[in-house]
What does this fold into?
Amino acid sequence: MPKPTGSTAGAAAAPLGDIVLYRTMAKTKKAHANTGKDSALATRENVGFLLAKASQRWNELLGERFAAHGYADVRPAYGSILVPLFEEDGLRLGELGRRARLAKQIMTTMVRLLERNALVERERDPADGRASLVRLTPRARRFRPVAEEVLRDLDEQLGSRVDANQRTALQTALKEVIDL
It folds into this structure.
């Protein structure tokens, strides 16, 4: 098993990915030794499991805080649609799906849910009458500062647990996972 370079005292300066990978490999090896099996990937130390649980917890925190601000009906999953529209309003459904990284069928369902909650509306694209543009509603524009405040607070909470270098490494690693 590869070990991180430097002393244990220097481990704090190592990139988060190296530390996490080393700890995960060590725990996996220990679990492997304890089970006597050839593979110990189906553990709570598995990267996929940890990503899923971290995402689940992040979404729980978002949902709780949205509700505390009067937006209990805004699901954290709506961020897949709202964030690209916060960046650029009035996107075609296909472009919105590309930016959200969602399949067309899921996009259609999500947009309908957001329409039901008065967060987006569709209108004909003046450049192509066959296409629709998805636009934020006034309610979604009122929600944006709430979302930004909640995200800022969660970022600060994360910052109390990981330093700036670890946060940057985490962002980089998550972008790599998204691009798998």
Observations:
- Residues 1-22 have pLDDT under 50 and may be disordered.
